[in-house]
Every structure is written in structure tokens, then in C-alpha cells.
Design goal:
alpha+beta, 44% helix, 22% strand, 5 strands, 4 helices, 153 residues, two-stranded antiparallel sheet, 3 domains, 3-stranded antiparallel β-sheet
């Protein structure tokens, strides 16, 4: 059932992402740029409120994009992050999920300015050993797996 629900939530996410994109598309029948701007304003406000709550609790904001924040706090355990999620839920009225706690994570640098990481390209390892990758070639369906590349040498 977990896989079924995960696929459903993934499908709903992409429907909403598509609808959001059409809000700002000038030729969309139901789109209106003011709607697009309003959605962005509410999202930015919520993200900033969330970041301020985390900072008040002693967390450092490492990175953030649209609906995600990557935070760190020396000595923090998973329960510290869960307590933070509960406080954010109370403040915003939105359900907050903790995807996991990383052992380490790398945010890839921008091609324009190597000192600034891009928002959607990263990889890391959760404390449970699971690898997470976004926006890099290994995520593409046409990229051979690492084991195939190593065995061909």
C-alpha cells in the first residue's frame, strides 16, 4: 500500500506543479499572472516564517527551495527535527514532513558563480544509509548504473 500511496502523492504533486506553471502562462485559458504572483508570495512568506522558526531553535539554514529546507544543528537528533516540524505545523497550519537526517550532503555549485550552490542539484546519504540524488546525471533514466560503468572497465 505504501508504494501505491507514494505513487498517488507523486501524481498529485505533478498535477499541481503543472497547474501552477499554467497560472503564469499568458496563453492559458485559466491562467492569470496575478494568481501566479500570489501563489509565489504565499510560498515565500511560509518559507521565510519556517526558516525563522528554525533559526530561533538554533538551527542553521543550509539551503532552501520552494517547499524544502535543509537545516543543521550541531548535536541534533531526529527528535529535535521532529519537534521543529511540529512547531512549524502549528505556526503555518501546513503538514510538515521530515524526509530524513543526512550523514552528509553536497549542493553542487552554479556554473555562473562557483561560490553559490544551485537550488536543485544535490546528493547525499541519510543516516540510514539511503542515497538521495536530485538534478544530477545519475538520476536520468538513460544514465547507466554505477555498477554497469565500473564492471565495463
Amino acid at each position: 500500500m505504501r508504494e501505491i500511496y507514494d505513487r498517488r502523492q507523486g501524481a498529485l504533486k505533478w498535477v499541481l506543479v503543472t497547474c501552477f506553471g499554467y497560472l503564469g502562462y499568458r496563453n492559458a485559458r485559466f491562467g492569470k499572472i496575478d494568481s501566479h504572483i500570489a501563489v509565489c508570495a504565499f510560498a515565500r512568506d511560509t518559507l521565510l516564517r519556517t526558516a525563522h522558526i528554525a533559526e530561533r531553535r538554533g538551527f542553521e539554514n543550509m539551503h532552501g527551495i520552494i517547499d524544502c529546507l535543509w537545516l543543521r544543528k550541531q548535536g541534533a537528533v531526529e527528535e529535535d527535527y521532529l519537534e521543529l516540524c511540529r512547531e512549524i505545523e502549528e505556526d503555518t497550519g501546513l503538514p510538515i514532513g521530515l524526509e530524513g537526517v543526512y550523514r552528509w550532503i553536497v549542493f553542487l555549485p552554479s556554473r555562473v558563480n562557483r561560490n553559490i550552490p544551485v537550488l536543485n542539484q544535490y546528493f547525499g546519504v541519510f543516516r540510514n544509509g539511503e542515497i538521495k540524488m536530485k538534478g544530477i546525471e545519475t538520476c536520468r533514466s538513460d544514465t547507466p548504473s554505477l555498477s554497469v560503468m565500473l564492471s565495463s572497465r
